[in-house]
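Technical annex, item 7. During the second reporting period the consortium partners agreed on a shared format for inverse folding records so that results from different sites could be compared directly. Each record opens with the tokenized structure and is followed by the designed sequence. A conforming record, contributed by the partner at site C, is shown below for reference.
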């Protein structure tokens, strides 16, 4: 997969400027490609040192069977700054993408897309760099307000910030806490929610996120 990567050795002001510039390139309309493979990405951090583990899992879109996985061990290069999460996580994720053999047509990120103060979270950043359809799927809210959706699977309500709908609060399983879905790049919010439901047949989180999370945690336990 080819990407137009900017430099990562940045100060906070430079990183915010890149977000503001690249956010203008986010496409909020649906892709037209057929989706055969869906990827999930995740990063986990060591509590004892500056090591981290990044993983990509690629699933077959219909069966949700694992096709390929790649794991990278790396070191933290960017400090934890709220709103600049992607500058911390994308460098190792990009290293993992360089090693995959199966090209996904959609990537689900354990993080946000438009549901971000500058409308450019991890999912949007990754999507724009690779010009690939991406979806933000967060376990917790970063910002915005919402009315709790009804309790059935598929029930949802808008996530709103400054009178703008920035995502959807989606119930993937009956009477289970909802998750926060947002546009990353080259996908509409409606389609993003449909995919997250499709990828979450049995659990709260989509299989892309669940499987990537399991791999990074297991690998992290060995370092």
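Designed sequence (site C submission):
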């Amino acid at each position: 997969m080819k990407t137009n990567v900017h430099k990562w050795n940045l100060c906070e002001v430079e990183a915010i400027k890149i977000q503001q510039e690249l956010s203008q390139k986010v496409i909020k309309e649906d892709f037209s490609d057929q989706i055969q493979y869906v990827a999930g990405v995740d990063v986990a951090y060591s509590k004892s040192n500056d090591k981290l583990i990044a993983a990509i899992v690629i699933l077959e879109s219909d069966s949700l069977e694992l096709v390929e996985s790649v794991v990278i061990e790396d070191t933290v290069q960017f400090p934890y700054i709220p709103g600049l999460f992607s500058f911390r996580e994308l460098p190792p994720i990009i290293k993992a993408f360089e090693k995959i053999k199966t090209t996904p047509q959609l990537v689900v990120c354990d993080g946000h897309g438009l549901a971000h103060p500058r409308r450019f979270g991890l999912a949007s950043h990754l999507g724009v760099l690779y010009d690939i359809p991406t979806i933000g799927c967060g376990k917790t809210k970063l910002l915005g307000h919402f009315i709790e959706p009804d309790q059935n699977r598929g029930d949802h309500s808008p996530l709103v910030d400054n009178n703008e709908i920035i995502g959807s609060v989606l119930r993937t399983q009956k009477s289970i806490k909802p998750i926060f879905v947002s546009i990353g790049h080259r996908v509409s919010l409606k389609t993003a929610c449909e995919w997250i439901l499709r990828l979450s047949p049995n659990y709260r989180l989509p299989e892309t996120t669940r499987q990537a999370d399991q791999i990074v945690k297991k690998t992290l336990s060995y370092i």
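The two ends are 28 Å apart (CA to CA). Strands lie at 37-45, 51-60, 66-75, 106-109, 134-138, 156-161, 164-170, 179-185. All partners now use this format for quarterly exchanges.
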